[in-house]
Structures are given as C-alpha cells and as structure tokens.
Design goal:
Layout (H helix, E strand, L loop, with lengths): L2 E12 L3 E12 L3 E5 L6 H8 L7 E6 L2 E2 L4 H10 E4 L12 H11 L4 H14 L15 H13 L5 E5 L7 H16 L3 E6 L2 H7 L2 E6 L2 E7 H4 L3 H5 L7 H11 L13 H13 L1
Parallel strand pairs: 3-8, 3-9, 6-7, 7-8
Antiparallel strand pairs: 1-2, 1-4, 4-5, 9-10
Helix pairs in contact: 3-4, 3-5, 4-5
The structure holds adenosine-5'-triphosphate (ATP).
Adenosine-5'-triphosphate (ATP) binds next to strand 2 and helix 1.
Protein name: ABC transporter ATP-binding protein
Organism: Rhodobacter aestuarii
GO molecular function: ATP binding; ATP hydrolysis activity; ATPase-coupled transmembrane transporter activity
Length: 280
C-alpha cells in the first residue's frame, strides 16, 4: 500500500488534560475511501484537524507522501493544497457573499489566472450538482446545500485527499442519499476520501476501508466488508453492523447463507439473495 498521508504515534491533549489522541497511527492509501468510525469523543475530529495541519501534534508526526510535514506558513499552504478539510459545520467554512465567490476563493488564492480559477469553480459546482446555486447568497442556503458548497470549495483546489468531518450530519434522508451519491462520484474520479462518522450505514455506503476509533486510539481496521460485518470488533466501540449485514449474518447463523458467501452490501444484493431463497 502506498501511503499518501499517514499519522505516526500522534498524541494530543486539549487544555485541562483531555486526551484526544493517545499514540494513534493510521495510513491513507491513494484512491481509497477510509471511514474513521467511532463514538462521540473518540478523537475523530481531532485526527482530521491534524491531517491538514490545523492542529499540531504534541507527540508523533504526520507524513505526506512519506515525508514529515512542516508547520511554517509556506509548508502549511502547500500541505492544504494537497489535503483539503471540509468541516462538520458548513457555517464555519463559508464566508463569501455568493456561492460562486465562495468556491472561487481557494483557486484564486492559489494564484491561478481568473480563467483557470473560473474553470475549476465551474467543474466543482458541476461535480456537486450545484451549478444552479452559483449566484445565491451563501447564508440563504439549506444545510444540505451549504454542505455541498463547502465540499465544492475543497474540490476546486483539486486536492489529492479530501477530509470530511461527519459529512452527512444534520442532513435528512434524501439529503444524505444525494450527498453519498455525489461523494461516490468523486471516488469514481479517483479522489482519495477520509471521513469521520459514527454512522455504520454511511461507512457501509461509502468506505473501502474502516478504522475503528475509541478513546484516541485505533482499535481495529481493515476492509470495510470485514470490519462492518465483525460484530465483536464493532461492539468494542459501541456499534453494531449495518442493517443489511446484520440481517445477512442472522441468515448465516440460521444456515440460510453459505458461510463463505460474500455478504450483501446493497439493497439490490440483498434482494437477489431473497429471490434465491424464494426459489428454493
Ligand atoms: N476544543 C476543545 N477543548 C477541549 N476539549 C476538546 C476540544 N475539542 C475536543 N475535545 C475533547 O477531545 C476529545 C476528542 O474529541 P473529538 O471532537 O476529536 O471527538 P470525535 O470523535 O470527533 O467526537 P464527535 O463524534 O462527538 O464529533 C473529547 O474528549 C472532547 O471532549
């Protein structure tokens, strides 16, 4: 595995001696979609803030493309061009008057020509399906629209890695489904994603790999299909398998499903299983 971004033995405590990262190590491979999965307070947001240099570790180090990162202004600017972070609350991220201006901010700051910046903005708006919102005031958008504008602003930088903190938090079912489809589209274009969540269904829909977090440490990691169907591993972080896996595991326990058969990850795959059982 070629690590594009990695954390080695990171330690970080907030004032008051609140340990957020407790010797945490993790690598991100190019082209993968990594879910940082764990309960509230496990250290997920703190890790993401370290992965784009917004926080500096008190112990350990972050490596980008295999080399330790620097924290000078110049080094941080170069780093954030390659690794973009989308915050959980879009209101913390959006500040320009209109959607177009907001998404333009990053590309213009890169020193690109107006024409090149515009092309990148158009592309990002298109990728997030918000071209029609381009002239709208950012403060008059819905939560889901704001989230997409914030992601477009990050995508317009053409980063190598996109970090997303709880990308579907606060969205309704339709808004979540739409955002998941858009993020799947970014993955299909080869974007490397790292996202934090406590939602096993989101991890199931979007992750190729999952790292389980608890108390500032990684307590398990592996292919999404392995981790998300591992009841014991999920239980140690207070979670249970996603619904489809849970039902399929139950079917396996009842002898309905061959123990070596792959578990269904989508509704369509589960439906195919049901059709097979109906024919028996
Ligand atoms: N600004 C802060 N000041 C003090 N303590 C903080 C601060 N931010 C986070 N913490 C603490 O650090 C620990 C890790 O928090 P973090 O936000 O990284 O967890 P998380 O896994 O992202 O949680 P959530 O799912 O609730 O967003 C928690 O104990 C939290 O209370």
């Amino acid at each position: 595995m070629t690590a594009i971004l990695s954390a080695e033995a990171l330690r970080y405590a907030f004032p008051g001696d609140v340990t957020a990262l407790d010797g945490l190590s993790l690598s991100v491979a190019a082209g993968e979609s990594l879910a940082i999965l764990g309960p509230n307070g496990a250290g997920k947001s703190t890790l993401l803030l370290h992965l784009n240099g917004s926080l500096r570790p008190q112990g350990g180090q972050v490596l980008l493309g295999g080399a330790p990162v620097g924290y000078s202004r110049k080094a941080l600017t170069a780093w954030r061009r390659r690794v973009a972070l989308v915050l959980q609350d879009a209101d913390d991220q959006l500040f320009a008057a209109t959607v177009f201006e907001d998404v333009s901010f990053g590309p213009l700051n890169l020193g690109l020509s107006a024409a090149e910046a515009r092309a990148r903005v158009e592309e990002a708006l298109e990728m997030l399906s918000i071209s029609d919102l381009r002239d709208r005031p950012t403060h008059m958008l819905s939560g889901g629209q704001k989230r997409r504008v914030a992601i477009a602003g990050a995508v317009a930088m053409r980063p190598e890695v996109l970090l997303l903190d709880e990308p579907t938090a606060g969205l309704d079912e339709a808004g979540s489904a739409q955002l998941i489809a858009l993020l799947q589209g970014l993955m299909a274009r080869g974007m490397t994603l790292v996202f934090s969540t406590h939602d096993v269904e989101l991890a199931c829909a979007l992750a190729s790999r999952v790292a389980l977090f608890r108390a500032g440490q990684v307590v398990g990691q592996g292919a999404a299909s392995d981790i998300l169907s591992d009841r014991a591993a999920l239980t140690q972080v207070g979670l249970a398998p996603p619904l489809l896996y849970d039902l399929a595991l139950r079917a396996r326990d009842l002898g309905l499903l061959d123990p070596t058969a792959a578990l269904p990850r989508t509704r369509a795959a589960f439906e195919a299983l049901l059709q097979g059982w109906a024919k028996r």
